[in-house]
Design a protein that fits this description.
This protein has helices spanning 65-71, 91-99, 151-158, 191-197, and strands spanning 11-16, 45-47, 55-61, 79-86, 102-103, 106-107, 112-116, 137-144, 163-171, 174-175, 186-188. By secondary structure, the chain is of the alpha+beta class.
Length: 200
């Protein structure tokens, strides 16, 4: 699905850190950071969202077409996450995640899920996860095509493996690793990089 950028518009990739809200105004009484702290140009807004306790690739733009093209469920746009979960999921649990699980009456669409044998190379999180000495952890790669609220976390919890850390590593074919960003950094995407976000 091709997307033609408009001249003069901003198409930004941001490595959202942990404990940062996907909004520019703070929540009353909250100590979490906001996007206003990172020096974005005026009039950009996040395309989609990541929960405050999730990290990784977030796109921002002042081009309103981005929302409908990337977020409309009928487009089945893919997003890929690395999820660190409690215990090591059995093949049957991974099959359930792939075929769909019931989250409060909603059956999730089919997903691609695989167990990662080696711990991925990710920056240290500002606040370490809660380790429990007698409970091992494992990493899953999860690709979904819908974006329900806290979906990946709810999916892994539904099969008995709560998510401890969640990092979005790709939007479409645009890989966070290829962008050279550290947590809290952002930059304008090239036309070629932007095109990757629309490939799935």
């Amino acid at each position: 699905m091709k997307f033609f950028p408009q001249k003069g518009k901003a198409y930004l990739a941001f490595f959202k850190p942990f404990d940062v809200l996907c909004q520019f105004t703070p929540e009353p009484g909250s100590d979490k950071g906001t996007l206003a702290e990172f020096g974005f140009p005026p009039d950009v807004y996040p395309v989609g969202r990541l929960d405050a306790d999730s990290e990784g690739l977030l796109l921002l733009s002042d081009d309103a077409r981005m929302n409908s093209r990337l977020l409309d469920p009928k487009n089945e746009h893919s997003r890929t996450y690395l999820a660190q979960v409690e215990n090591v999921p059995a093949p049957a649990s991974i099959e359930k995640l792939e075929s769909g699980v019931d989250i409060k009456g909603h059956w999730t669409l089919p997903a691609k899920v695989s167990l990662i044998k080696e711990e991925p190379h990710l920056p240290e999180r500002g606040k370490p996860i809660r380790y429990r000495k007698n409970i091992p952890t494992a990493w899953l790669q999860v690709t979904i095509t819908e974006g329900k609220n806290r979906q990946v976390r709810r999916m892994t919890a539904a099969v008995g493996h709560p998510t401890l850390r969640l990092v979005r590593v790709a939007i479409g074919a645009l890989q966070l690793e290829s962008l050279g960003l550290k947590p809290g950094q952002w930059r304008q995407l090239t036309d070629e990089e932007l095109a990757l976000a629309f490939q799935w």
